[in-house]
Specification:
single chain; alpha+beta; Structural Genomics Hypothetical 15.5 Kd Protein In mrcA-pckA Intergenic Region, Chain A; Pseudouridine synthase; 3 domains; 11-stranded mixed sheet; 3-stranded antiparallel sheet; 10 helices; 14 strands
Length: about 350
């Protein structure tokens, strides 16, 4: 017999999903058969797999050791890169700072130039750094990775810096996922936009993406007579976007803005501001190349100057009361101070 107790890293998931992770080589039909025959029990009782597991639940599996090893996959060797890539990423990406950490989540400050998640198999990203950090500090074990892999929950572009929310546990991932889906967690950015912007505004429109070119474009809101059909289309592809901004400081040729990302689409801030004539400083994909070149030559600025500097959590219940109503900040990179000098 095999017996184990559910830990905080494993709680919150359906029992059948947990079993699939514990016994990856066993098929669904076989697992449900074993549940019906009570060869697998939860807290010494018959289970159907739909139960939500909690900390302290006792799982018992009445298999022969050879059968158990087979279904757990212990007879096969793990690829050498499975865990070593995490340790490597933790050693390589040393500029990542931790803003806040508790049992379930971690808030990181990602410098520009680092990927949030892999774009290619050989990449090292914040996601691998996170797992490497937790392995190195004892936050998780290699065995824990069989049940849940800590992960980044909101991605920033490679050249966008600032706050990234990471889930250490499944419960943390579920909480962050729900807040992001319901848009009750507020995310704010700072950036320099071209021109003088003197008043706050809410931008609305429809975002469309060209997957081949990895580029988006913005369509303005339609006239009132067309809005019903347009809104139905927007709901279907989820492309209706909202971007709120307010000026913080007007300089000679640009304005420092605070932008609230209400919806969270790829390249939304960059494309939305460019569509109303205020492209981001350093943005060569959507911006003003001639203007950007002036700052590239003087300051070496080669990509968009966009920084996720603040997040605000809504009221939360146990076990997230330590995050309830809190605001976290991330200081601006020093390049913001350098480019504030008029060119």
């Amino acid at each position: 017999m095999f017996q184990t107790t559910i830990t905080p890293k494993e709680e919150g998931q359906r029992f059948d999903k947990y079993l699939h992770r514990l016994l990856p080589n066993a098929g669904s039909a076989f697992l449900y058969k074993m549940l019906r025959k009570k060869n697998i029990t939860l807290n010494d009782r018959k289970a159907d797999g739909s139960e939500k597991i909690t900390v302290g639940d006792c799982v018992k599996i009445f298999f022969a050791q050879e059968t158990l090893s087979k279904f757990m996959g212990k007879s096969t060797d793990k690829p050498a890169s499975t865990v070593s890539e995490y340790h490597m990423a933790y050693g390589q990406l040393q500029d990542i700072q931790i803003i806040y950490e508790n049992e379930h989540i971690l808030i990181a400050d990602k410098p520009a130039g680092i990927l949030s998640q892999k774009a290619d198999q050989t990449d090292s990203s914040l996601n691998e750094w996170l797992i490497g950090y937790l392995l190195e500090t004892g936050g998780i074990s290699e065995e824990d990775l069989s049940f849940y892999k800590p992960s980044v929950c909101n991605r920033l572009d490679r050249n966008t810096s600032g706050i990234v929310l990471c889930a250490k546990t499944l419960k943390g991932a579920q909480m962050l996922g729900e807040l992001l889906k319901e848009r009750t967690l507020h995310k704010y950015y700072q950036l320099y936009a071209k021109g003088r912007i003197e008043e706050e505004a809410l931008l609305e429109g429809y975002l469309h993406k060209d997957e081949k070119r990895n580029k988006v474009w913005i369509e303005p809101l339609p006239t009132l007579s067309d809005q019903v059909n347009a809104l139905k289309a927007a709901e279907k592809d989820n492309s209706l976007i909202h971007t709120r901004y307010k000026p913080l400081r007007i300089e000679q040729d640009k304005t420092l803005l605070e932008v609230e990302l209400i919806t969270g689409k790829s390249h939304q801030i960059r494309a939305h501001l460019a569509s109303v004539g205020h492209p981001l400083l350093g943005d060569y994909k959507y911006g003003d190349r001639t203007w950007n070149e002036i700052y590239r030559q003087k300051y070496g600025l080669k990509s968009q100057l966009l920084h996720a500097y603040k997040v605000e959590f809504p009221p939360l219940d146990t076990p997230f009361e330590d995050l309830s109503g809190r605001t976290f900040f991330c200081k601006l990179p020093e390049i913001f101070g350098r480019v504030s000098t008029p060119v």
